[in-house]
Design a protein that fits this description.
173 residues; 73% helix; globular
Length: 173
């Protein structure tokens, strides 16, 4: 899944059959135990899955947050996978899904040492706002603030994501 998801992003080509994607989506949609394996499977598939199925799965994960075994050890996978899902919805121009999932993620109390995800969630909100308004200044302010805090690597990663969002949204105007 990881390789196919990445190849879809890099080359724009899906190497899985529709049946394979539907089988994975069905498995995740009907899953009741969110182990590290299942969260990782979902985290590696948000760009491949149908938006509606991906949204339903993401919301099931969020609403079963307390049931995730060993979540403390897997919080990075959990938040990273769901943040990537928000980005996938933005790329697919499903801003309602992106906003609803982002709102749910913001309700999760994160330990202080996961400040990275607070910044990421703020960036995602500003990315959604950009898609709706075309105003890139709030997004650019995040990059400026991160550079001033000597977090240039994080700023670079977010800048690359923003360039992709901007290109996708400007291509179809």
């Amino acid at each position: 899944m990881l390789v196919c998801n990445q190849l879809l992003l890099i080359k724009g080509k899906n190497y899985l059959t529709t049946a394979d994607i539907q089988r994975i989506g069905s498995y995740l949609l009907h899953n009741t135990v969110w182990s590290k394996y299942n969260i990782t499977l979902f985290a590696n598939s948000p760009f491949l899955l149908n938006s509606e199925i991906g949204f339903k799965i993401a919301m099931r994960i969020v609403h079963n947050f307390d049931q995730v075994s060993d979540l403390t050890d897997n919080l990075t996978i959990f938040m990273g996978g769901l943040s990537d899902t928000v980005i996938a919805f933005i790329f697919k121009k499903k801003l309602d899904y992106a906003q609803q999932l982002l709102d749910e993620l913001r309700k999760i109390e994160l330990p202080p040492h996961f400040m990275f995800f607070d910044i990421t969630l703020t960036f995602l909100q500003r990315g959604i706002d950009y898609c709706q308004t075309g105003n890139e200044q709030p997004v650019l302010a995040i990059f400026n603030n991160l550079i001033q805090l000597n977090c240039s690597r994080h700023a670079q990663k977010l800048l690359e994501a923003f360039k992709d969002v901007k290109q996708i949204w400007e291509d179809n105007e």
